[in-house]
Design a protein that fits this description.
The chain has 3 helices and 4 strands, in the order βαββαβα. By secondary structure, it is an alpha+beta fold. It has a single domain (5-68), classed as Alpha-Beta Plaits (2-Layer Sandwich), CATH 3.30.70. The protein has a 4-stranded antiparallel beta sheet, with helices on one face. It is elongated and about 60 Å long. The chain starts with a strand and ends with a helix.
Length: 87
């Protein structure tokens, strides 16, 4: 079974130094223009890793991603109204 993963958005001041964030988890995306890094790590180790990342001199702010908590399965409780608006 796959371990639970948690996503984080880390705002950095130096992208070259931000490459060293790979030791905490897997880096998914690095924005050169807006200076942020999207990364995923194991949920059980995430609190300790966030504390260690917060101490780094090039890390400005760390935000947790709420993507896991957003509902992605939808139910069709209401009737389809497309037939009322078609030509």
């Amino acid at each position: 079974m796959l371990p639970d993963r948690t996503g984080y958005i880390i705002w950095v001041s130096d992208l070259k130094a931000a490459r060293s964030l790979e030791r905490f988890g897997s880096v998914h995306y690095m924005s050169r223009k807006m200076h942020y890094v999207v990364m995923y790590m194991n949920a059980e180790r995430s609190e300790e890793a966030v504390r260690q990342m917060g101490k780094l001199p090039y890390v400005r702010k760390i935000e947790r991603s709420y993507r896991n908590e957003i509902k992605t399965e939808y139910s069709k409780d209401s009737e389809d109204k497309t037939r009322f608006y078609s030509l």
